[in-house]
Amino acid sequence: MALEEFVKQPFIQEDHMFQKIMDICIQRLRKCYCGLTPHHVVSKFDDRTSTLYYNVAEPEDVNCSAA
């Protein structure tokens, strides 16, 4: 299954934590994701709040082209 098709699956669309994880993976593949900041999200797997770290741009990161 292609990545684009996978992320459109209903279960994936309903789970905010998994959506963010997939967004991180896709952005990192595109070299548009550079760092971490904490965000609180609830997973549909267990309905518990967890901290997910994402979305801090650090242009000095040699593996990242985000500014």
TrEMBL record:
Q: Which InterPro entries match?
A: Nudix_hydrolase6-like
Instruction: Spell out the protein name for this chain.
Output: Uncharacterized protein
